[in-house]
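Revision sheet: structure tokens.
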Amino acid sequence: KKFMEERTKECPNENNHQSYASGKLSIIVTNNKEREKINLQKLFELLPEAKVFTVHSTNEATNMKEPPQVDPNLPLTQTGQLENIVSFKEGAPVMITSNHSVKKYKNNGIVNGARGYIDSIQASKADPDVAEVICVRFNDDKTGQLLRRDNYHLRKEHKPNDPLAVPIVKQRKKFKVRSGNVSWLREQFPLTLCYAITSHKVKL
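Predicted:
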């Protein structure tokens, strides 16, 4: 923290949305609570007109019929790197939080830390407030090209703005909570906002 504070200075592009979307700018913080606070603040400040999709994870206990509720403040390291609740808007900078379970997609860049921005969001036909597919334009053109190719059929329902955008759907990950000895299966998009990132995510 001292190292970072000694190097803090004013940033003339702090409210330039494109700088965040391109991956050229991030606010570096030391903890996830501060990260989440800044991400929501910037999401609504810099994209005031875009529709917001708030996505709640679904959590299923696999070894207990009447389990206690999942602690909403569990860190990502304990939940398979899937957020409990996350809000998205078209144009927002995002980061992959969890490696893809399929090896070829993982090897093609769909891994924890890959960054881009939301090109567009495919909503459910049954409920226009529910996000079914999030199309991400990654900073590296090659990231996700295999996933995009293998899911080209999705374009029958939704055509992204950028032809290089990659469709991201929800993942299912297992995790265990020691308190209560409950095994969980969480379903959520493997994405998080990245106006702000924690210091351990920084690549120098």
